[in-house]
Amino acid sequence: MGTAPRALPAHSSPRSPREAQAWRGAPRGAPQDKQPGRTPGPAPRQQDGQDITYLRSGLGQQLPGLAQGPTVQPKPLSFTPAPAKSPAALTDRHGPAPAPGTRSGGLGAGPGGPSLGKGPGPGRCPTGTRQHREEEAAASAARRWDGTGRDGRGSRAEEGSGAALPPHPALHFEPRSQPGAKRRGTRWHREGCPQPGPTAAAGSARHRALQLEPNVVRVGRVAAGLCQELRLARPEICRQAVQLFQRDVVAAWARSVLRPAEACGLLLGPRCGHWDIYGAWNVSLPAAPKPPVRPPVPPPPGAPSARVLFLTDLHWDRLYTPGSDAACPDPLCCRGAARPGPGGAGFWGEYSKCDLPLHTIAGLLAQLRHAGPFAAAYWTGDIPAHNVWQQRREDQLLALRTVTALLRQHLGTLPVYPAVGNHEATPVNAFPPPYVHGNQSSAWLYDAMAEAWKDWLPPPALETLRAAGFYTVQVWPGLRLVSLNMNFCSQANFWLLINSTDPAGQLQWLVGVLEAAEQQGEKVHIIGHIPPAHCLRSWSWNYYRIVNRFEGTIAAQFFGHTHVDEFEMFYDEETLTRPVSVAFVAPSVTTYINLNPGYRVYEVDGAYNGSSHAVLDHETFILNLTEANVPGAEPRWQRLYRAREAYGMASAFPADWDLLIRRFQDDERLFQRFWYHFHKGHPPREPCLEACKAALLCALRTGRSADPSLCRVLRPARPFRQILQLWRQRQLC
Ligand SMILES: [Zn+2]
Ligand SMILES: [Zn+2]
C-alpha cells in the first residue's frame, strides 16, 4: 500500500531571478494582476455550443465577505443555499444540458471572480517551478484513473517510457530488478504497470495525434486505444472508463476551458499537453490577533473522556462474491461468479485488490455494541467500491442509502457526522464547485446525502451540505465539528482546472467558523476525507496557515482516504519546529489493497467545563482475515493496538507525535511496529528499509503539500535530494 501520494518539488525556494519568475508563474499566460482570482496559465477559450453554464451565483454571492476581497471578513454562519437544482439533475444524468451562459463565476470561478490575496512571500504560497507543475500534472492525471487519489508518479516515467499514463491499481511492494542496469533496491509499484518498450513508440504517435486533434470524442477514442495498447486494463474496461470520463468531465472542460493540447495532457500526461492549476492565492485571516499559545496539558484527574467511533473508506462492493477470482487482471477483483478450487476470494474479504461484501461491514457494525459506548461517530466517506470505470449515479446513490441505513440500524441513536469522500461521485473525483448548475452539478449527490443524513444533522448543516458538501454542527456544548469537503482541495478533481482558488469559498468559510468559535470559547474538531498534505499546494498551504492561526481552537483533525494508518504533523510557520497540531489519518474499513478490514476509536477529553476536547489516545481494531476466513471460524474483531501503550507515549498531544517520529528514526523496532500498524497488521513481505523509512518519516512530518523543508530536521543519512527521489519512487506507477 502506498504511503504518501504527496508531491515534493525539487527545491523549496527560488534560487535565481529566472527561477523566482517561474515560482510566480508569470511567464505563462496573462499576468496575474490582470486575472484576479484566476490561476496563471492559458486563458480560457470561449466556444460555441458549450454545455455547461458558469454563473456568478451560489456561495460566492451568499457570503459577502468572500466576494469582496481579502480585507473583508466573511459572515460564516449566515449561509444561504444555492438556487434550487433542476429536477432533471436528480433523475436524468444525461438529460438536456443547461443553456450556454457566461463564465464569469462566483468565488474562485475564473476571470472576473473576486480576488483573494496572492503571490509568494513570507507565509504565502509559492506556485512552484514549471518542472514541478508538470510533475504534478503527470501525477494528477494518473490519480484520476486510479480513483484512490494516490499519486500516479512512478518508475515508468522516470525510465523514459513517455507520458504518465493511467495506472493499473494492483499495488505490490516488491523488489524490482532493472534489466541491464544496476539494481536500485525496492520500490513501490503496481503489478501490471506497462513497461517501456515498443508500446512507448505507439504512445508517442498517439500523443502527436492528440495534439493535433481538437475533437474531444476523438480524443477519447485515441485514449481508449492507448489504454488497450499499453495493456492498462482489459479492452472493455478501457472503453468504459474513457467513455465515462470523456462524456462527463473531459468533454465539459475541453469545450469550455481546455485547448486540445491541454485536454491531451489531462488524459495522458504532461508530454502530451500542459495545463496549470497551481496558481497561488491566500485566504484572509482575522484582523484580531492570535490569542496567546497555551501548551496542552492532560485533563484533571477524574475528568470524563469520550470515545468517538471513526469509520472511513468502507468501499462496499455490491458484486463481491466469496470464491470468485481474487487475482483477476481487472482493477477490482473478488467479484462475479464463484469458481471451483482453492484461491478464491474469502468469505469476509481478501488480501488482494478487492473491496468488501456488505456482510463484513454489517459484521463490524454489529459487534460495536460490545465495543462501545461511544459519544459520537465520525464517518469520513468513500462508500462505493473501486469499480470506477462503470459506476452510474444510481449505483452511487444505492451505496449511499444502503450503507447509511446499515449504520442507522446498528448505531441506533448515536450521532453520526459524515464527510464526503472522493468516491461518492461518478466519475470518481468529479466535484464541480457550486457555480456549476444543472445536470452537471453535484446536486444529485448532495441532495441525496442531505436526505439520507437528515436525522443526524440539523437544518443549517443540511443547507450547506446541499450547497457544497460541507457543514458545521455543535457536537456537544463546548465542541463544534467542521466537516470539510476535501474534494475541493483535490488535484484529482477535474473541475478545479477551471479555477482552483478556494473552491466554493470553503476555506474562507472555515476561517469564519473558527473565528466565531474562538470568540465563543468553543473547541473545534475538523473531519474530512483527503488529508491536507495530499491537497493542491495553495489549498494545503492556506489550510496550514489556518491551523496555525487557530491552534488554540482546533482541538483535533481527523482524515482517511489513504487506507493506511498514519498521521501528518503541523508545525508553527515561523520556525517549523514547534508542533501545533496533528492530522490523524485512520486506516480504512476496506481491505483495498492487501489489508485487513479495520476501524478506529478516538478517546478525547470529554464534555465538561474547560475541556480541551483534545485526543488523549486512540485504538485501532481489525478483523484478521487469515483467521476469519478459515472454514467454520467465527469472525473476531480485535484491538490491534492502543497508540500510547504501543508507542510508549506520555500523552497524545502534537509534541508527543513529533517526538515519536524522532524516536522512529533511532529505534528500529519501534519503527517496524509502526510499519506493521500502518498496514493494519498485514504488511508486505518486504520490510521497510532505509530508503522507505526516510521517505515515510518525511511524509509524517509534512502536513502541507510539496514542502521539503519540513523534512530537513530529520537529517537523513542520504542527501535530501535523494530522499525526495526515493519518495517519488515509492509512489504508485
Ligand atoms: Zn478510499
Ligand atoms: Zn478516497
UniProtKB/TrEMBL annotation:
GO biological process: ceramide biosynthetic process; sphingomyelin catabolic process
Name of the gene encoding the protein in the UniProt record: SMPD1
Subunit structure: Monomer. Interacts with SORT1; the interaction is required for SMPD1 targeting to lysosomes.
Coiled-coil spans in chain: none
Localization (cell): Lipid droplet; Lysosome; Secreted, Extracellular space
Ranges annotated as biased composition (Gly residues): 103-122
Taxonomic superkingdom: Eukaryota
Alphabetized GO MF terms: acid sphingomyelin phosphodiesterase activity; hydrolase activity, acting on glycosyl bonds; metal ion binding; phosphatidylcholine phospholipase C activity
Cellular-component GO terms for this entry: extracellular space; lipid droplet; lysosome; membrane
Function: Converts sphingomyelin to ceramide. Exists as two enzymatic forms that arise from alternative trafficking of a single protein precursor, one that is targeted to the endolysosomal compartment, whereas the other is released extracellularly. However, in response to various forms of stress, lysosomal exocytosis may represent a major source of the secretory form.
Pfam families to which the protein is assigned, alphabetical: ASMase_C (PF19272), Metallophos (PF00149)
Protein name (Swiss-Prot/TrEMBL): Sphingomyelin phosphodiesterase
Entry keyword annotation includes Zinc: yes
Needed co-factor(s): Zn(2+)
Upper lineage: Eukaryota, Metazoa, Chordata, Craniata, Vertebrata
Comp. bias (Basic and acidic residues): 143-159
Chain ranges of the Sphingomyelin phosphodiesterase C-terminal domain: 579-701
Region (Disordered): 1-205
Sequence similarity: Belongs to the acid sphingomyelinase family.
InterPro entries in UniProt: ASM_C, ASMase/PPN1_MPP, Calcineurin-like_PHP, Metallo-depent_PP-like
CDD domains: MPP_ASMase
Primary localization: other
Catalytic activity: a sphingomyelin + H2O = phosphocholine + an N-acylsphing-4-enine + H(+); a 1,2-diacyl-sn-glycero-3-phosphocholine + H2O = phosphocholine + a 1,2-diacyl-sn-glycerol + H(+); N-(octadecanoyl)-sphing-4-enine-1-phosphocholine + H2O = N-octadecanoylsphing-4-enine + phosphocholine + H(+); 1,2-dihexadecanoyl-sn-glycero-3-phosphocholine + H2O = 1,2-dihexadecanoyl-sn-glycerol + phosphocholine + H(+)
Alphabetically ordered keywords of this record: Disulfide bond, Glycoprotein, Glycosidase, Hydrolase, Lipid droplet, Lipid metabolism, Lysosome, Metal-binding, Phosphoprotein, Secreted, Signal, Zinc
Domain Calcineurin-like phosphoesterase: 307-564
Bias kind Low complexity: ranges: 58-70
EC numbers on record: 3.1.4.12, 3.1.4.3
